[in-house]
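Can you give me the bound-state structure? Components:
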Amino acid sequence: MKEAVRDAASILRERLRDFIQAQEPEAQGIEVGNLAPLTAGNTRNAWSFDASWTEHGKARSVGCVMLRKAEAGQLETPLIPEFEVIRRLGKTGVPIPGAYWIDPEGKWLERPAFILERVAGTSDFPALMRPEGAEMSRGVAEHLVEVAAQLHTADWKSLGLDFLPATSVETAAAQQVEYWESLFRRHRLEPHPAMVGAFIWLKEHQPVADRITVVHGDFRYGNLLYEGKRINALLDWEMVHLGDPIEDLTWAYRALWTPAGVMSLEEFAQRYTKASGIPVHPDNLLFYRLFNEMKHAIISLTGAKSFHDGRTRNIVIADRAATVTSYLIQFYDWLPEVGVGKAS
Amino acid sequence: MIKPTVGELLGGVAISLRERVLPEIPAGVTRRQIQAAIGIIRRASLVWDKVGPYFFADNRDIEETLRRLIPVIERVTANETDADLEAVATKLRATLDRSGEQEELYPSPAVLGARNIELQEVLAELQEALHENPVAKSAGRLEIDALIRDLLRRMLARELEINSPARP
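Here's the bound-state model for the whole set.
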């Protein structure tokens, strides 16, 4: 196994050297060192490395992380929009890694991939959930409010992010529901009447957004690099889109990674509104809390289907369909009651 | 052969992998794959003998609820013109008429599972038909919604025992 990893690493080192040369034609003597796999998500394989070269007599050196598309997994999203969003948001105050190069079709790096700046910090979110990490977690949560406000007040039009699918305050919720329902219909392994019922409720109760912003789409503990109480970088942008910013707030408060132990959602929302000027309406909050349970359920179903169909052999996602039940139970627990004389 | 049961075998394998194999594997991709496999084997060890009874109980509950829904649907379609709902009601009756058609005294989990899919399907179609014509909701439609939602909650509670079984 170790031999195989070494071989893969040396082949990849060659590929990276050739790729960087093609991106930086003036570079001479390119060296790729310290190449090592990183623990990453189930949709991207990550490698860390250092690259150095000489350009017009000046030495250059950069710490890099390569994110390369995994075999089929839980999410199958294109790389170019993600890379472009990271590149363009780098011009704002949002903490985000620098965007270096992209190989959108895997011509150089075997599979589609892009290379980002390596940022200091840890993404260890269990450390933030433990009682002894409470003080640090509180600081990170306070910074997370600021980061949310920065992201959601970024002027996406002037940043040139209008290549993302267009939406409006009236249609933002409908578009997300339609997108995730289409994935549900494509990836379900059985009819799932509880999910059908959940989508019907979501279609019948779509709120109007206060405004349209960039929505990270996976905004949470676990997708940020932090040092002490400060967030150095927001990671994993594969679900980025234009939409209702409340979607990000409610995703951050899902039970699996919620910072509610150190900051209630109510306090987060108050601080967020103060920092961003964006109100958090109860209807939007409820809708996106429910929607996000479904979204995570579909991500899990997609992973389970990929394994079931033999398109991935990643055991980590093999049994993800079993996790869907608890998300649906949460959905139905939060759902307003129906019946004669009750809100539908 | 009764002993060891499939559950005992799988449970033992999960313990061996966790106690003997895992400590030998350094942190990284391979270790995470083995950990995930252990979790799946452990779940299978806990639910292997519960799947049949789960399908049996789920099928019975869905069938009973659908039988209760039929007169309510008939009341609704008598007062409203709704071709989609009438078509689903016809399919629903046909599906319920096939109840108890299994020839085996003790149907296998596979047979019960196939019936479960069939019942899930008609339940999903009924919900979609109700949604297709979102007229102002009559008392009958609200009654149907409430009965279906209660059923879905019971189905999820049963499903949870299979998907997230408590350790013995």
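A couple of observations. The interface with chain A takes residues 28-30, 32-33, 36-37, 39-40, 43, 117, 120-121, 123-124, 127-128, 130-131, 134, 137, 139, 142-143, 145-146, 148-149, 152-153, 155-157, 159-160, 162-164 of chain B (CB under 8 Å). Residues 35 and 50 of chain B are 24 Å apart (CA to CA).
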